[in-house]
Specification:
- A four-stranded antiparallel beta sheet has the order 1-4-3-2.
- It has eight helices and four strands.
- With about 280 residues, it is of the alpha+beta class.
- The radius of gyration is 21 Å and the shape is globular.
- The two termini are about 40 Å apart.
Length: about 280
Amino acid sequence: MRFVANTLEVRDLSAMTDQDDDDTSEVPRSPDDIPSYELERALADLTLMDDPFLRMQITNLTATDQALMNLEQQVLHRLVDEERTPIDDTIILLAFSQMWLFGAYELLRTWRQRAKDFEKLHANGGIDLKIAALAARGPKVHPVRDVRIEQLKELRDDPDVIKTLRDDLRRTHIPFRLLETLRVSLAKHEVSGKKNALPYASGYGRINRYTGSLDFEISMDHIILDVVSRRGIADALRAFSDGTPLPDDDTIKSFDDYISGVGLPTAPESDAAFGDEADPSE
């Protein structure tokens, strides 16, 4: 991910080279050096992730992350050995990578929405009313409802919970927004939040020469905002528990402006069809 606080790096598509999307400042770890528990622990340690049904999804993401890293390495080794793209393995890798990204997005989206709902209940004093409303629902035993009630009671009774919840929302903000933007490009073939803009190569992935993971462009008309891989997203999620300082308000605002395309140069006239073009009839 190329975002740096208060910095917006953009590149014109015509200036691209075959490997200019590789960041040589830090070579990623080998899959052999990444234990499976890193991703599971990073996600499970988020406040409210003690829900056993969300934990099941964490387990699914962790297991498939390990399998995909092995497949990514296999694709990379074949690319080097055969000096051409291994089409058969790459097709499978592309399909499974997108499914993993969609699953990761849905897990974080669900968790963040619940966390924000809990934050609102805490702020407006509605926790007891919510507990009573849930308890009044049948049947007598309902595992999802019962977990939610226990989480609400903990939020009400332990003043530390709201602080850690807010910290976790801040901690996950940038990786989630990046994942959300990539998901819109891959699944909807659109630019997130930009009705009339077009993604340049939605769904097209290039094999990263360090990890074998597929690099996807996040673009807006003629501008590439970032190049993101499934492995890069997984590493960002793993970093939730590595002690990285929380982003401050300025960093979050700067990132949100960056990923939304605030301040981007306008498209050249020759590329007007890619963006917002005035209706000549008006």
